[in-house]
Amino acid sequence: MPPGIHLAGPLRSTINALIAAVNRLDKSFSPADTISKLHAHKFTFKDSIYILHIFSAVFWLTLMDVPPFPYKLAIPVLYAIALLIPFTSQFFVPATPVFSWVLMFYSNQFLPADHRPAVHVVLLPTLESVLYGANISDILTRFTHPILDIIAWLPYGVIHYTFPLVLAAFLWLFRPPALRVFAQAFGYQNCIGVFTQIVLPCAAPWYEIIYGLTPAAYGTPGSAGGLGRIDELFGGEGYKRTFASSPLVFGAFPSLHAAWVTLEALFLSAMWPSCAKWAWGYAAVLYWSTMYLSHHYLIDVVGGACLATACFYFFVPEELRNGNGNAAADKYERYDLEGRRGGFGVGIEEFASDSTLSDEEETPIAYRSPNPANAQGKGKGGRGHRHTASIASLIRADERAGEDGWSPITGGGFVFPPENRR
Fold first, then answer.
1. pLDDT tens, 84-130?
2. Residues 183, 185, 188, 190: what is their CA dihedral angle, to the nearest 10 degrees?
3. Which pLDDT tens digit goes with each residue over 177-226?
């Protein structure tokens, strides 16, 4: 930072995190570097998943009619180029499960109708009535109001599509080891969800409202459901057109809206525990909005949440689930120091990792002054630490116990000159 420029703590932490994240990037554009890394890579059984991705891509690309051949060949060619360039491959390789989901979601519309399973219209409302004693989604749609429409629209139709990118950006800045895991869990969760929707097609509540419980055909256009009221409120037809041309009309179960928000809440709770109440509050509102807008039954929401939870615990290592999003554990808990002083709500400093520079330059605890009055930064309201001197003297005591004249527990401290123990 240039001398004379002083930034606020949260802004400084964010800038330092951004600089560190940019420095971590591989800035090479030479395909030779990627080929060298590939030769040096020791392949394991886990790498065989990429063979499945290749077969899946070949299947869905062959099935794709729009764009037609040979224009659709540009998709694998461009993707291969992105994998060969080190700068782009560091983003595209971890995102491979996400791209597989996007390709599957788009190309499933080209499956011939006579090769598809029958659409289940009665299954979900029947299961909901049996399991929960009533059609919960039908009850929630009986009373509508423009204010409720806005409250449901914001998480379902706006934030839902942007929040994964925002969360990925925060992970990239402040919890780098968790970003690749998030991409895996998010991508494979969506692949499993879309595959389930293809092999077990189910009609959403809007179909029951429009057509009743009559058998459904694959040519039926999708409906915006309650989001149509948002189009009328703002005088547009964006949601009506988007859902009418949806590649997957009968994909009610499981709800990927519920799966997305559940996975996001789990990651936020694990990486930044202070955000847990806000994350799950947002998730609860989105759960409700999926049913209020007549896009999902309650059983769809439960199914999506269970899918996300299963993927979270399957893909996310235990050390990340316990909140260790950085390589080093939180020093305040490790050494029983006085914790950071919290304020109202959640500030950006909650997202900053301990590896980034704070307002006072980090100093190894073993070299901090045992006298708090002499510590650096106290004039600026720096952190006060409990037991700093005693802890500093006990660190690695077993390694230093053999040194002549030193003991971490004796009152004499250093003995000079040291006694001859030989």
1. 999 999 999 999 999 999 999 999 999 999 999 999 999 999 999 99
2. -90
3. 999 999 999 999 999 999 999 999 999 999 999 999 999 999 899 999 99
